[in-house]
Design goal:
The chain is mainly α. It has one domain (2-219). Helix 2 (21-36) packs parallel to helix 9 (158-191) and helix 3 (40-52) packs antiparallel against helix 10 (195-219). It has helices at 2-17, 21-36, 40-52, 54-77, 79-84, 87-110, 123-135, 138-147, 158-191, 195-219.
Length: 224
């Protein structure tokens, strides 16, 4: 009986701490606008799908969403706030992410004439690359460092609110990214049947990574 009472109290506390319905709807809309607009995460997943197929796209997508979970944890534990106050940390994030994306592009260009079919052996690598790509994504960094805290009511438990907003964020991001993967896969299967077309798509994918890295280096992560 005592355990049930404790659980009921905890549940009530979580419900009280959750953001209001209007706040959640506004946050869902903001998340949709962020995720649906082509940024490093979307372009990365799309390029993977076009160049290596639907499986690679979905694995990369899961990696991207996992990277966003890391940002949610950073926000809940205060790490994101520390980043926002440190120009040096933001600089490392900025140039480290840019260098990594350019590295992926160069690596992809060297293998541009190879048709790489994802196997169980290299799927963990694709997943890990997706995580790191989103962790160093300046667009996502700005969202979690500067934008998400505006939806937090500091007079109530912060962690529970971030958890609720995080569920909304991940749900919207998964739906949007799934649509991109399926769309890119359909386009690739229709228009990239010849070896020449696949070669061109691989070059485009490599160029996309390099362009994303260059854009990240130029734009950077501005302190809110």
């Amino acid at each position: 009986m005592g355990c049930r009472v404790v659980r009921a109290v905890r549940l009530c506390c979580m419900i009280i701490a959750m953001p209001e319905g209007t706040t959640l709807l506004l946050f869902a809309l903001a998340t949709f606008l962020l995720t649906v607009s082509p940024g490093p995460g979307v372009l990365y997943v799309t390029a993977r799908t076009v160049a290596q197929g639907r499986t690679a796209g979905f694995v990369s997508m899961v990696g991207i969403e996992s990277g966003e979970v890391v940002w949610l944890i950073a926000t809940a534990t205060g790490v994101a706030a520390l980043l926002s106050a440190s120009e040096g940390a933001l600089g490392v994030l900025r140039y480290g992410g840019a260098a990594y994306l350019i590295y992926l592009g160069v690596q992809r260009w060297r293998e541009v004439d190879r048709v790489e079919v994802p196997s169980s052996a290299n799927l963990p690598k694709l997943y890990a690359q997706g995580i790191f790509t989103q962790i160093v994504n300046p667009k996502v960094a700005v969202f979690f460092v500067a934008f998400l805290p505006q939806f937090i009511d500091t007079s109530r438990p912060v962690v529970a609110q971030i958890a609720a907003l995080g569920v909304v964020y991940i749900a919207v991001a998964v739906m949007v990214d799934t649509a991109y993967v399926l769309g890119a896969s359909a386009i690739a299967s229709r228009f990239l049947r010849s070896a020449k077309a696949r070669l061109r798509s691989n070059r485009v994918a490599a160029g996309t990574y390099v362009a994303l890295g260059a854009a990240a280096a130029v734009a950077g992560v501005r302190r809110p």
